[in-house]
Structure formats: C-alpha cells, structure tokens
Amino acid sequence: MKRRLLTPALLLIFSGTATAQTSILEGLIPPGSASTSGQIIQMLAVLTVLSIAPGLLIMVTSFTRFAIAFSMLRAGLGLQTTPANLVMISLALFMTFYVMAPVFDRAWQNGVQPLVNNQITQDVAMNEITTPFREFMLRQVRDKDLRLFEDLADESFRTQANEVVDLRILIPAFMISELRRGFEIGFLIVLPFLVIDLIVATLTMSMGMMMLPPTVLSLPFKILFFVLIDGWNILVGSLIRSYS
C-alpha cells in the first residue's frame, strides 16, 4: 500500500523538477531568437579560430623565416637531430615573440583590451586587431608576390584604388615572400659549410681514403668553425635585423 502511494508522489516530484529545468532553459535560450543563434555561431567561430591558432601564427608572423633558417643551419652542419626539434622550434617561437612584440602590443591595446572592457564593438575590434598585422605584412611582402595574387583574385575581393589590401590576398603573398627570403638566408648559411665539405673531400681523395665519407671528417671542423665565429649570435642578430 505504501509503495502505491509513494510512486505517484515520486512521479510528481520528478515531473516538477523537469518542468523547472525546461523553463530555465527556455529562459536562457528563447525560441526563435536571432541574437542567440548569432551568439552560437560566434562561439563556433571562436572555437574554430582557437583550433587553427598555430597555423595563424605561422601565416602572419616572422616564424616561417626563422624556422627555415634554423633548418638550413642544421642541414648545413650535417647534424640530423642536434639541436633537437623542440629546441629549434622554441627558439624560433620566442624570436617571433621578440620581433612581433610591437605588433602584439598594438593589437592588444587598441583592439582586444577595449573589446574586453566593452568600450568598442566587435567589428571595430576586429579592424583594430588586424591593422597592425596588415601593416607588418605590407612592409615585408614583395610587390611581385602581391601583384600575383591581385591578378589571380576574384573581382569581389580584388583591391580597388585607395582601399586596403584584402587579407585573402595579403596573407598568401606574405607567406611566399617569407619562404623566398628564408631560402635566400639558408643559402648564405649553407655556403661556407659546403666549402668546408669540398676541402675535406679533396684532401681525403688526394690521400686515397676512398672508403671514408668526407662528411665524417668535416663535421667537427664545421662545428668548430661555427663556434669560433660565434655563429648563433651572428645568425640570430642577422635574422632579427632583417625585419628592421
């Protein structure tokens, strides 16, 4: 008898709780609200941007040039895993923060911070955040690369007279410009090590040591040469000055 009385009571309690939760959800997300749908889309957009943040860092900063130069240095020295990838990427990353510090500071002070404090709208904040990066890329991009993407661009986002360059044109042009400069710097890095390899190979061949790979003998000489000229200081300083 008690069970028969408790069952309806429990059903009433749980149904009341479910009704209360439903009313709360309806208050948070009103049906057919366009603003709520817009907030959901904005949240999805923010999550998407956060997921591709490393790619954005590579596309609009100096990271590409640094990473290519360090990779060329390791290849020129003939070292496969030294310095480790973690060390090389970390050094390139912190050098990127060093070079891009003025750009990051302007984007934060003019765009992100006022947006967090509800002083400006999202559209204004987006323009203030992208402007420092746009100016940085315009200083580094080659005119030839920019014209290439201008000519290939669709009429809908092609740059008109007295208008800012569309990011869909500027970013790929900036990336191929950085790749070209990275390989130019890499050639200058590898060239002296190649000369050492040729000298050692000539000496080993003249002494009849056919079975001994020249790279085995040239490796300590290349490392000694790089250390004696204070190579890290010269390379890092030259890379940073290339953006001044």
TrEMBL record:
What PROSITE patterns does the record point to? FLIP_1 (PS01060), FLIP_2 (PS01061)
Protein keywords: Bacterial flagellum, Bacterial flagellum biogenesis, Bacterial flagellum protein export, Cell membrane, Cell projection, Cilium, Flagellum, Membrane, Protein transport, Signal, Transmembrane, Transmembrane helix, Transport
**Record has Lyase as a keyword:** no
Tell whether Plastid is among the UniProt keywords: no
Task: List this protein's GO terms for biological process.
Answer: bacterial-type flagellum organization; protein secretion
| Localization annotation | Cell membrane; Bacterial flagellum basal body
Q: Which Pfam families match?
A: FliP
Q: Which residues form the signal peptide?
A: 1-20
Q: What does this protein do?
A: Plays a role in the flagellum-specific transport system.
The record gives the membrane topology as: Multi-pass membrane protein
> Which family does the record claim for this protein?
Belongs to the FliP/MopC/SpaP family.
In the UniProt record, the gene name given for this protein reads: fliP
Where does this protein come from, organism-wise? Phyllobacterium brassicacearum
The protein's predominant localisation is: membrane
For this record, an example GO cellular component is: bacterial-type flagellum basal body
Q: What is this protein called?
A: Flagellar biosynthetic protein FliP
